[in-house]
Amino acid sequence: MTAVxxxxxxxxxxxxxxxxxxxxxxxxxxTHGVLKVVLGVDGERVTRAIPHIGFLHRNHxxxxxxxxxxxxxxxxxRMDYVSGMQNELPLCLAVEDMLGIxxxxxxxxxxxxxxxLSRIASHLVWIGTYMLDLGAITPFLxxxxxxxxxxxxxxxxxxxxxxxNYFTFxxxxxxxxxxxxxxxxxxLKFFETKLPEYEALTIDAPVFQARTVGVGVLDPQVALNxxxxxPNLRGSGIPWDLRKDxxxxxxxxxxxxxxxxxxxxxxxxxxxxxxxxxxxxxxxxQAIAQYPKVGPTLPKLPRLKPVAGVERYxxxxxxxxxxxxxxxxxxxxxxxxxxHRSPSFCTLxxxxxxxxxxxxxxxxAILGSIDIVLGEVDR
Length: 379
Fold this sequence. Notes:
Cytochrome-c3 Hydrogenase, chain B, 16 helices, single chain, 9 strands, about 375 residues, 3-stranded antiparallel beta sheet, 4-stranded antiparallel beta sheet, alpha+beta
């Protein structure tokens, strides 16, 4: 972090003359990517927090507008690279709506199972890196150990670990690995035995609670005003979850609880994600129990050339919140317009509300609690 004295700012910020500007990032490991946050600090208190984004220059949306619909899918993996497979689904759902493609039942269940498995993997990255931000190394090592087991399962079926490119229009690209369901059940059995250890090291630990309770308070109305979604919204007491409110694939056929916490602080956001571990396990077990053993995974597809002027928006509940895709067709095999609504981008808008008034020493604890991925912000 670099301290920068700005004479103009010293004179004009609400009459104060002792505010110091501090650049948090962009070359800082705790910003979880190339993000710069300009902090105004008066003594020990943060007076303002202005995020500066755009360092990655991804340009995904314009790239998709000069590619065919099928060629767009691999680009979505690279937005939120921590849970790449989840990013593929809203684009697939939007194109399926545009062309009236009916997804086979087996593919709906495969998608749902892998979608929730990716959620567990993503939350493991979050808890590992968050604890590293707070000064604990052991949970980081445990989290990445268990995440590797999930990536092994995904690799057997999709052929890739981080950027799988497995979901496609009408279902999935190929049938899953013969032992995939057995491997997943074995992993879930192992992971359930480890969750009490994670809780003891994190949300139940007095040190963790001291660093997060009452820190980074996000008022529910402020969260709604800024379009915050996912665990960050549910951690502020708003029970909004697209898997329940606008269900897709196999979610209408499984039972689970929307994880809502009322504390509105970093601790509540953390507890919401921890509870989602248990709910994801519950969803996967139900989906595997109901899974159709036979049937196609991909229907015969029409030519991927929607009628000109057709517009569709589809959104799903990924690990970080609501990820949506808005498409406009022009009668060709390429979208006329592609627009992504990414949850981390919206969450950053509420950053100042969480920072202002907090202690400077809590800045990293607040930033880590919102679980952002900069590849998705700078899409």
